[in-house]
Design brief:
There is one protein chain. With 347 residues, the chain is α/β, with parallel strands linked by helices. 35% of the residues lie in helices and 20% in strands. The chain has two domains: 2-59, DNA polymerase, domain 1; 63-346, Aldolase class I (TIM Barrel, Alpha-Beta Barrel), CATH 3.20.20.70. The protein has helices spanning 9-18, 25-34, 47-55, 129-142, 167-177, 198-207, 222-228, 237-251, 269-279, 304-316, 337-346; strands at 2-3, 58-59, 63-70, 76-82, 87-95, 98-102, 106-108, 123-126, 154-157, 190-194, 212-216, 255-261, 284-290, 321-323. A ten-stranded mixed beta sheet has the order 3-4-5-6-9-10-11-12-13-14, with helices on both faces. It has a two-stranded parallel ribbon with strand order 1-2. Strands 7-8 form a two-stranded antiparallel sheet. Strand 4 and strand 5 form a beta hairpin. The protein starts with a strand and ends with a helix. The structure holds iron/sulfur cluster (SF4). Residues 109, 111-113, 116, 118-119, 160-162, 195, 216, 335 line the site of iron/sulfur cluster.
Length: 347
């Protein structure tokens, strides 16, 4: 089984020609797929080509919505089913400025961060580029969007998986999703999150896409970081900050620092001061997030008062920061949580 969206337009043209069809059919086919069409739909392409693709076991839509849970604030948590039966999740966040889709890059995750549900069931496999693009096509269709009238405005690669641990498919995804003749996303509207894979941050800078880089730091020193993020044993915070500075230098993009506030672990004013010291020379903005408690994890959410105190300490030290409102709390907002509940139901 092959996924058509894994091929670039040029590769697809070669396949179409090898099947004895005309080259321009490749773009026609991609237009139909980006409009959410599958074999069961009416596709305005000669039947002989459709038959040949089906005979070659080429999949048009690699994922479909298995469940969609709508929150009180209108955000939507999706469970998608992949062609091999694996389940991944995604979140659609509705803001005044547009619709942001949070997408996954792996089934499960190797990183096993202590505040996250995605690593609880281990790592299964990487998603292909087509499976990553498929999430955008599927959510866009859910909103009534098409190729020409795209309803998803922003993409954040913050769902399950570590995007930089699936680098090759990530690079292919960026090339396709920014293609001017397809969805034509601006790199300014794409954010890639990482737990801090230092060599890959530098590689991403050199790739030249200039997307927003979001670093999940979550700790003001290596001792605390090692307690909640196993990756901290491989890369110290100092190396991550250096890589972030390199990314800023190459791309001129301000870095986003994600910091989940966890009660009794990393949320005191003294921790805020240590964080400010780390970040004082890095052009960045800090997103503070109150922990979303996860089933099967023991970490606790802090009071809103302590979160505001942490925020004010950073602001007083001239660090740009905001306390993010958490959307979708009533629909298992924590990354990986809905999938884990579903996996339990299936077992
Ligand atoms: S926070 Fe990100 S890197 Fe860490 S386990 Fe969850 S998905 Fe993986």
């Amino acid at each position: 089984m092959k996924i058509l969206l894994d091929y670039s337009l040029q590769e697809l043209e070669e396949i179409i020609v090898s099947l004895g069809e005309q080259k321009f059919r490749a773009k026609q086919l991609l237009d139909a797929i980006y409009n959410g069409k599958d074999y069961s739909d009416k596709i305005n392409i000669n039947k002989s080509l459709i038959d040949k693709l089906q005979d070659s076991q080429i999949v048009l839509q690699p994922i479909n919505i298995y469940k969609a849970k709508v929150s009180k604030d209108d955000s939507v948590k999706f469970l998608y089913k992949l062609n091999d039966g694996n389940i991944i999740e995604g979140v659609l966040l509705r803001y005044a400025f547009g619709n942001t889709l949070c997408i996954s890059t792996q089934v499960g995750c190797k990183m096993n961060c202590a505040f996250c549900a995605s690593g609880l069931n281990g790592f299964v496999r990487n998603l292909s580029a087509g499976e990553i693009i498929g999430q955008v096509i599927t959510a866009n269709k859910y909103l009534g969007g098409t190729l020409k009238d795209r309803k998803i405005t922003n993409l954040v690669l913050m769902g399950s998986g570590e995007p930089l641990d699936n680098f090759e498919n990530l690079a292919k995804f960026l090339s396709q999703i920014t293609n001017e003749s397809l969805f034509n996303f601006s790199v300014r509207n794409i954010t890639i999150s990482t737990c801090g894979l230092v060599p890959k941050i530098e590689k991403l800078a050199d790739l030249g896409y200039n997307v927003t880089l979001s670093i999940s730091l979550h700790a003001p020193n290596d001792t605390i970081r090692k307690q909640i993020m196993p990756i901290a044993k491989s890369y110290p915070i100092s190396a991550i900050i250096e890589a972030a500075k390199y990314y800023n230098l190459v791309t001129s993009r301000r870095i986003t620092i994600e910091y989940i506030l966890i009660d009794g672990v990393n949320n005191t004013p003294n921790h805020a001061k240590q964080l400010a010291e780390l970040l004082k020379d890095l052009p960045c903005h800090v997103n503070l997030i109150k922990l979303n408690e996860v089933d099967g994890r023991s970490l606790k959410t802090p009071t809103i008062g302590s979160c505001k105190q942490f925020l004010n300490t950073l602001l007083n030290l001239q660090i740009s920061a905001t306390l993010r409102r958490s959307l979708g709390d009533d629909i298992e907002g924590a990354c990986g949580q809905l999938r884990n509940r579903e996996l339990k139901n299936i077992k």
